[in-house]
Amino acid sequence: TICEILHAHREIQPSVWIFHVGANRFLRGMVRALVGTLLEVGLGKISLEEFGRIIESRDRSQAGPNVAAKGLSLTEVLYPEGSWVAISKITDARRERTEKSGQKDT
Known about the structure:
Blueprint: E1 5-13, E2 16-23, H1 30-42, H2 48-57, H3 83-101
Antiparallel strand pairs: 1-2
């Protein structure tokens, strides 16, 4: 699966670094690997050019170590315009099927 990173930036506060990442989708561990690799750039272990090559390669084995999930949080999910209409239709159809069959909707 190919993910398009729409934006990535960081805030440095006195006792914490905050990374903001936006993408069209996320893979398991993607943000942890991205932040781990960006930390290696910040620590001077790899250059920005190397970071760019790692991202372009789409090869996870070239990336830095995953950061711990501690403190990682999802703050917002945005859906394309009109997607809720499709989800609503699917939900309504499922509800109708389960009501007709006499089963509970799970």
